[in-house]
Amino acid sequence: MEQMNTRVTRAAWRNQRPRKKRYITGFDGLRTLAVIGVIVYHLAPSSMQGGYLGVPIFFLISGYLVTYLLIQEWETHGGVNFLSFYNRRVKRLYPALVTMILGTTAYITLFQRNLLVNIRGTVLTNLVYVYNWFEIHHGQSYFDRFSGESPFTHLWTLSIEGQFYLVWPLVVVGLLLFFRSRIKAALVLFAAAIASAIAMAVLYDPNNLNRVYYGTDTRMFAILIGAAMAFIWPAYKLSGNVTRSHRLMLDGLGLASLLGTVILFFNMNGQAASTYRGGMFWFTMLSAVLVATVAHPGSDMNRILTNKLFSYVGKRSYGIYLYQFPVMIFYESRVQNIGNHPLLNALIEVTLIMVVTEASYRLIENPLRHYQYGRVFSDVKRLVQQPAAHRVTTVLGGVAVVCFALTAVGFVQQPAAAKPTALQQTITKRQAEAQKQNEAAAKKQKALAKAQAESKKKHDKAVAFSKLSKADQKTAKYYFLTADELTSSKQTPLTAIGDSVLLDDSGDIQKVFPGAVVDGQVGRQAAAMPGVIASINQRGQMAKNVLVNVGTNGNISQAQADQIVQGIGRDHQIFWVTVHVPTREWQNQVNSMIHKTAKKYPNVHVIDWYTKAKDHSSWFVSDHVHPNDHGNRYFTSLIAKTISHQLSK
């Protein structure tokens, strides 16, 4: 009888809910803030360069809620039901994740087969929540928005959360057993958070952000800070009966932290060294103050962040986050004028994301969250026997089977490696050629600088075309240059720094500017330029005239533009090429910044490639960004003409 009573007690304990459980509605507001930041960052990084910071807010909330609910369960029942915890987590997270993975893989198997590279590893590591480590070794930078983005890249966060959920009940129980003082337990967690932030700072490498950006050890501090808060600031123990002065203090801290969080959303660059050497940690601490004030029932912050819209978005934030990248990448691969109509396309993409999310929420997430999986075999049998009586379920089951079959096809057909496109082969070849040319070109720069100075002193008359050699006449005709323009270009020392567009044109540039040193890299963004400029200066290869071609791969802030100009030096003439990227929203922002920088610095001159090329789609390869051979003639011609005319003034 005693054994039977024990079993009954345990069964009752498993089914009993913790007391005093309070749903903190303001957390839906925080989730809304976080997901808006992430979405806007992905849609328009030029508008909100720190939107990626929504992820630490998600981590904070997860760390806080999961930990305080486990502590509450321990205090209420004298233990933690591990199986129940894991069951709730799996039923909440797995159905939508599997749906997204199967649907996305099926789509790329049918329509974007170039994304099948590493598809097996991508799918399998996501299913076991270790995808973030797979990304470190196989994925592209989170900030590379141009070079064939993967629709799975953003799932690294779910892997870190999955790893957290797996071990955290054990960690919490261990801390509760080992420490009688909750403050001591919180200090241990906070010390671990500091160690994680230090690891981020130490392991930071500007040439390989993946390690610190995706690593569990380097990103865990946000979850740990939230968990530490749960030990010393548990919502279920906080009283709403506070004095007016305490309420004002809580509200003041909450509003200040909310304002600071929003400001950093707009200003903290994801590729700046300061972000990884303390910046993201202090942002998380600031956001922790916001989370703490929202959790406190004596503060008005919970009410401020509670409304029907925030509740709607917050409850669907998981689905919104899940489906955002596939929708964006698939849509943008079909639409080529995003840069010319960024707001319209952003609205269309947000609408599509919300439609997909709502369908998933109603048909997948909510039903399966409460589904009793022990009935699956009987339900399948009933469905087969009476498909007409369960039409929606039948359709969903059919779609699932098709997606699963297409995923299997994708697994079988996964290429061993991505085949380089004709453009990639050309760029690689020209990069090697440019490096060889650079060695000889560096030696010519001093002689060219001296010859240029002597030419100015002599006030040479216009050069007759007939006086050019036959080879030079051919070059001038090919690039639409006059004899003066070609002669000036050949006598002009030039250092060219840029991205893949520059690399693609490097051979043409070095024909017109024989002494040009070309330093280009695929995917290069403005954030990398200061280091590149410092390296060129260190090698003594910075000519008096500098061609800058950066902005193809992402937006440029005023601070970055200033760093580039100041790094090169005001005693140099800088020629900055505007970008032609109609497939990306940052095109207009980058070009506006280039023009603004030219007005700010008298030694900066604009080479307006965008205006020259925008109505000539035949000048570009299929990506509408890199010029083809015909386009490179006009690209080189514009550079030579602009530099020649400016230097002749």
From TrEMBL:
The yes or no answer to whether the keyword Protein biosynthesis is present is no
Molecular-function annotations in GO = acyltransferase activity
User: Matching Pfam families, A to Z?
Assistant: Acyl_transf_3
- Please state where this protein is localized: Cell membrane
Ranges that cross the membrane: 23-44, 50-71, 92-110, 162-179, 186-204, 219-236, 248-268, 280-297, 392-412
Q: Which Gene3D superfamilies match?
A: SGNH hydrolase (3.40.50.1110)
Per the database record, which ranges form the Acyltransferase domain?
Answer: 25-357
Protein name as catalogued: Acyltransferase
What PANTHER family does its record include?
ACETYLTRANSFERASE, ACYL_TRANSF_3 DOMAIN-CONTAINING PROTEIN
Instruction: Using the UniProt record, give the first listed, main subcellular location.
Output: membrane
Q: Say which species the protein is native to.
A: Levilactobacillus zymae
Superkingdom, according to UniProt?
A: Bacteria
